[in-house]
């Protein structure tokens, strides 16, 4: 994940009030309609809400939706709980960091040179 795009709704169309149609907005290729960027599963329990439109506020709801639209399956509560438990094992320790405090820019501040 992270650098891949996948179709949302393989078995059943994803129904949403959100009008986003995926990567087609950038590529103009019909094949990219409803293809969305897939983020990594690392720390997935911390990155709610889920999906491009924030439809799923919990991992449990996200698992139910994905089971239905991607697999054509309705998970039992026990199956859902096992999948959610697995996804939670992908949560790691969050690094402790502080954002730097930079001095204010002036008219003598050099502009950035990101490609040199």
Verbal overview:
This protein is flat. The longest helix has 13 residues, at 59-71. The two termini are 30 Å apart. Helix content is 25%, strand content 7%. The protein has a two-stranded antiparallel ribbon with strand order 1-2. The chain has a single domain, classed as Cytochrome c-like domain (Cytochrome Bc1 Complex, Chain D, domain 2, Orthogonal Bundle). Helix 2 crosses helix 3 (77-88). It contains 3 helices and 2 strands. It has 116 residues and is of the alpha+beta class. It has helices at residues 24-27, 59-71, 77-88; strands spanning 4-7, 35-38.
Key terms:
116 residues, alpha+beta, Cytochrome Bc1 Complex, Chain D, domain 2, two-stranded antiparallel ribbon, electron transfer activity
Characterize the biggest β-sheet: 2 strands, antiparallel
Unreliable spans are: none
Report the sheet-strand fraction: 5-15%
Structural class: alpha+beta
User: H/E series, N to C?
Assistant: EHEHH
Number of beta-strand segments: 2
Average pLDDT number: 85
Give the N-to-C terminal Cα separation: 30 Å
Helix fraction, binned, reads 25-40%
Number of helices: 3
Calculate Rg over CA atoms.
Answer: 20 Å
Using the 3D structure, state the CATH architecture.
Answer: Orthogonal Bundle
Protein name: Cytochrome C biogenesis protein CcsA
GO molecular function: cytochrome-c peroxidase activity; electron transfer activity; heme binding
Region (Disordered): 95-116
Organism: Rhodopseudomonas palustris
């Amino acid at each position: 994940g992270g650098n891949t795009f996948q179709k949302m709704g393989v078995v059943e169309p994803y129904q949403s009030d959100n009008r986003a149609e995926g990567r087609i907005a950038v590529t103009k290729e019909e094949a990219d309609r409803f293809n969305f960027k897939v983020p990594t599963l690392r720390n997935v329990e911390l990155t709610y809400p889920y999906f491009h439109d924030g439809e799923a506020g919990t991992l449990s709801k996200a698992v139910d939706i994905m089971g239905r639209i991607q697999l054509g399956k309705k998970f039992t509560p026990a199956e859902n709980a096992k999948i959610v438990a697995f996804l939670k094992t992908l949560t790691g320790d969050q690094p402790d960091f502080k954002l730097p405090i930079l001095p204010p820019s002036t008219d003598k501040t050099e502009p950035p040179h990101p490609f040199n």
